[in-house]
Amino acid sequence: MMTNLPTRKNIIKYQTLVESSKEKEKAIIISKAQYHTNDESLLIVKGIPNCEVTLNSKLTKRIIIKSLTTVLVKSDVGTIDEEWDELLLEKGACVQFQFVEGNWYILSSDGLKMF
Predict the structure, then answer these.
(1) What is the mean pLDDT of residues 25-29?
(2) pLDDT for the residue numbered 4
(3) Is there a contact between 113 and 90 (Cβ–Cβ < 8 Å)?
(4) Which of 12, 79, 91, 110 is 20 to 30 A from 4 (CA-CA)?
(5) Mean pLDDT of the residues in the chain
(6) What's the Rg (C-alpha) of the chain?
(7) Is residue 19 part of a domain?
(8) Above pLDDT 90, what percent of the chain?
């Protein structure tokens, strides 16, 4: 004799934990006459009259530079926006740079500041 008993099916749930591939942001403040970028995502320059920052393509691929002083930004290889060897940031400027295929590119900039 057959009975119509319900069949029980066990369902096992698997949960996969995926860690974010986004790198931790590294922000630093410097007050040096010369500086080479070192994998930071944000560089704030202040407390000195002038600073020369060299973009290090071996360690840094994208960086935002906020200048609270006069900052001369230089490329270690290639050019900036395929035109310039260096870029002068005046007090208050903020520029984002990205290294792509041998050159540094300006992704965003707050433009000219008039006081």
Answers:
(1) 91
(2) 67
(3) yes
(4) 12
(5) 85
(6) 25
(7) no
(8) 71
Q: How many residues does the chain have?
A: 115
Phi, psi of 74 (to 5 degrees): -120, 150
Domain interval for residue 44? 27-109
Phi-psi region of 13 (alpha: psi -120 to 50; beta: other; left: phi over 0): beta
Question: Angle at Cα 50 formed by Cα 46 and Cα 87, nearest 5°?
Answer: 100
pTM over 0.85: no
Number of domains in the chain: 1
Nearest Cα residue to 50 out of 66, 29, 33, 75:
33
Contact 63, 45 (CB under 8 A): no
Q: 44, exposed or middle or buried, with CB in 10 Å at 0-12, 13-18, 19+?
A: middle
Domain annotation covers residue 17: no
> Has residue 4 been placed in a domain?
no
Distance in angstroms (rounded) separating the CA atoms of residues 80 and 58: 16
pLDDT tens, residue by residue, 45-79: 999 999 999 999 999 999 999 999 999 999 999 99
Assess contact for 75 and 85: CB atoms under 8 A: yes
